[in-house]
Amino acid sequence: MKTFTEKVLDIVRGIPKGKTLTYAEVALQAGNPGAVRAVGSIMKKNYDPTVPCHRVIRANGTVGEYNRGGSEAKARLLRFEREN
Questions:
Q1: If you write DSSP's letter for every residue of 10-54 in order, what string do you get?
Q2: What domain range includes position 37?
Q3: Phi-psi region of 59 (alpha: psi -120 to 50; beta: other; left: phi over 0)
Q4: Of the chain's two ends, which shows fewer C-beta atoms within 10 Å, N or C?
Q5: Could you tell me the CATH number of the domain that includes residue 49?
Q6: What residues contact 3, with CB distance under 8 A and at least 6 apart?
Q7: What sign does the CA torsion over 4, 64, 51, 24 have?
Q8: Can you tell me the distance from the alpha carbon of 80 to that of 84, in angstroms, rounded to the nearest whole number?
Q9: Beta 56-57 vs 21-22: how paired, if at all?
């Protein structure tokens, strides 16, 4: 049986290029809709290049933080993916 963290990482790996999910959507898909902050914590600690954590955004549509260059880098990556 997979841990919550493993489920979250698998869900985020499955987000297609150019698409996003909110932290809440990831938490819901992982089976714990109340664990939105936990999803954020998992993303903050993620440095695995196979997990596109930049594709997880806030519920209000803003990009939020990004552990690989900040919110500007995250926004740039998302724009690039949507355009290409």
A1: HHHHTSPTT--EEHHHHHHHTT-TT-HHHHHHHHHH---TTS-GG
A2: 4-83
A3: alpha
A4: N
A5: 1.10.10.10
A6: none
A7: positive
A8: 6
A9: parallel
Q: Which of 47, 59, 52 is nearest to 16 (CA)?
A: 52
Q: Which two tokens stand for residue 14?
A: 């499955």
- Tell the burial category of 38 from Cβ atoms under 10 Å away from its Cβ (0-12, 13-18, 19+): middle
Residues with catalytic roles:
53
Burial class (CB in 10 A: 0-12, 13-18, 19+), 61: exposed
pLDDT in tens, 27-80: 999 999 999 999 999 999 999 999 999 999 999 999 999 999 999 999 999 999
> Global pTM?
0.95
> Which residue in 35, 66, 41 sits closest to 53, CA to CA?
66
